[in-house]
Structures are given as C-alpha cells and as structure tokens.
Design brief:
- This protein is an all-alpha fold.
- It has one domain.
- Helices cover 79% and strands 0% of the residues.
- It is built from 14 helices and no strands.
- The longest helix has 43 residues.
- It is globular, with a radius of gyration of 27 Å.
- The relative contact order is 0.11.
C-alpha cells in the first residue's frame, strides 16, 4: 500500500509539473506572438511614417491639453486622429503592394507639411500668449548695428523685387523636384533618407514654433520700413497670398530655409552636380526671406541648423534601421 501511494504521489507530482510547464510555455508563446505582432506593425512603418506619427502624437497631445488656448481645437483633434489612421493605412497598403496607395504612402509628407504649417496659426499660442520677437530684434541689432530687414531695403528695385519673390515661392518646388529626380531614377533608399531628413527638419521646426513664438519683422518692424516692395506679377501674386493666407507666427526657424537647405545638402550627397546648380538658388531663397521681411537673419541661421540636423538624423536613423533589418 505504501509503495502504491508513493507511486501515485510521484505520478501526481509529474502531472502537476507538466501542467505548470505547459502553462509557462503557452504564456511564453503568447508573449512571443504579441511581440512579433508589435514588431510586424512597426516594420510596416518607414522612417517618414514614424516621424510623422511622432509629430502627430505631440501636436494632438498639445491640442488636447491646451485646447482652451487653441482656435478650432474641436476640428483639429479629429483631424489629427484621422491623419494617424491614414498614415497607418498607407503603410499597410504599401506592405500589400497596392500600387497607387503605395505611391501615395511615399509622397504624402510634403502635403502634410502645408497642413501642419497652416495649423500653426491656431496652435502658436497654445503655451505662451505673447511673442518673443524682442529677443531676436535686440540680438540682431547688437550683432549688426542695424535691423537687417530695414537696411536691405536700400537695394530694392522692380526687377530685384520680382526675382526675390519668385525664388521665395520656389522652396516647396525644390522638395518635390529633387524627390522626383531620386524617385524616377529608382533610388528609393536615397529618396527615403531625403524625405525622412525633410520630415525631421520641418517637424522639429513646428515644435519650436510653439515654444518660441515669433511673428516676423513684417509685423514688428513695419514702422521702420520706408520703401514699399513693389513689382510685377510675381510680387502681386505673393502679396495676394500674404494678404489672404499669411500664417501669423511660425517664423523661427525659417521652414523656407530649412526645406531648401535639406534639398541642397541632400543634392551634394546624392547628386553633387545638381547641388552645384542649386547653390545660387538656395542662397537666393535665404536672402529673399530677409529681403521680403518674412524673417529675421537669425531665423535663417536656425533654418540652416535644422536642415543640417535633419540630414544627419535622417541618415543616422536609416543606417541604424538597415543594420537592424540585416540582423533579423
């Protein structure tokens, strides 16, 4: 009897041990499955997707927390959630090889730049109710002994006004043009780095807009300006846009400069010959932002720094992601 009881006890202990082992194995399997699912979801997102979602999370949180200081917050919040769903949906379509949606999934960021910039008009005072222009004005006067936007008006004339207004509007076309060059040549890795670099430069600038709101010398130094910038059709066209669609705020850093300089730096990296041709145009854009009274000189400097940081971060993120994918 004692031997039978001992055998039964041993069998029970073995079955209990097996049950615990099976439960542990099932739990580990479930954990691995969940981790794999999360990993698979992340794999669907390229660098531009991740940077866009990161900015959307920041701006959505800002709108939700500071909604009492934001105009039309009740419209912006659902719009942001819709954009998050759109980014995820386009990433899924890209993974499934749906041709048209896959194309859109690579090219949507430049369109969102326009939306996010226009949105700054509503969110610029989410945290701080006033403007910080006085700090830039004092710094520039200490550096140069003059107000650059006022000093440069002495060179104003019809043809220079036309040229400056024309190049000022070309910054966005540079992004589309150089991106198209890489895309049509089948250089998709270079294209992804370029778009990711542009995303980082723009999104970082939008964050700074909120924490350091600047309205531009067009508003703060207008009482010192003695010369009206008159010209022909390009000047008239820009004046019309500025009259009806000017975004009040979002001047530091200059996203015109940041976007254009990302193109220039990327061109020197991926297509040096194009970089040589673009240099005079990009330099003209930098000057035009001050000449047209849209930006302070320090806005331009900050824009160049954001472009350099964007290109460095974009290349670094892409390189690190490539290493991880090879390890997998």
């Amino acid at each position: 009897m004692i031997e039978q009881d001992s055998v039964r006890s041993s069998q029970f202990a073995i079955r209990s041990s097996q049950t615990v082992t099976d439960k542990t194995a099932n739990q580990n399997c479930e954990l691995r499955t969940a981790n794999c699912e999360r990993t698979n979801v992340l794999i669907l997102l390229n660098l531009a997707d991740r940077l866009t979602l990161a900015y959307l999370i920041f701006s959505t949180t800002l709108i939700a927390v500071c909604h009492q200081n934001i105009k039309h917050w009740e419209i912006l919040l659902p719009a942001h959630f819709s954009l998050m769903a759109m980014v995820a949906g386009l990433a899924y379509a890209r993974s499934r090889g749906i041709r048209f949606l896959s194309f859109i999934s690579h090219w949507y960021p430049p369109l969102l730049f326009l939306f996010f910039f226009e949105e700054i008009g509503s969110t610029v005072h989410a945290i701080f109710p006033g403007w910080f222009d006085e700090y830039l004005i004092k710094a520039e006067f200490a550096l140069f002994g003059v107000h650059p936007t006022v000093w440069i008006e002495q060179f104003s004339n019809y043809w220079l006004n036309e040229y400056m207004q024309l190049v000022y509007t070309s910054y966005f076309l540079l992004t589309i043009g150089f991106g198209s060059y890489l895309w049509l040549r089948g250089r998709r890795d270079d294209f992804d780095v370029f778009i990711a670099s542009t995303c980082f430069a723009y999104y970082s600038s939008y964050v700074i807009f909120v924490f350091f709101p600047i309205e531009s010398p067009y508003h703060t130094l207008s009482h010192l300006q003695q010369v009206e910038l008159t010209g022909g059709p390009f000047t008239a066209f820009i004046n019309l846009i500025e009259k009806h669609g000017r975004v009040h705020g979002g001047a530091f850093p200059s996203t015109h400069v940041a976007g254009a300089v990302v193109v220039l730096f990327s061109a020197y990296r991926f297509a040096p010959r194009i970089g040589y041709w673009l240099t005079p145009l990009v330099l003209s854009i930098c000057i035009a932002t001050v000449y047209g009274r849209y930006h302070y000189v320090l806005d331009v400097v900050a824009g160049v720094l954001m472009a350099a940081l964007g290109c460095w971060v974009g290349a670094m993120l892409y390189r690190s992601r490539g290493i991880r994918n090879k390890r997998k």
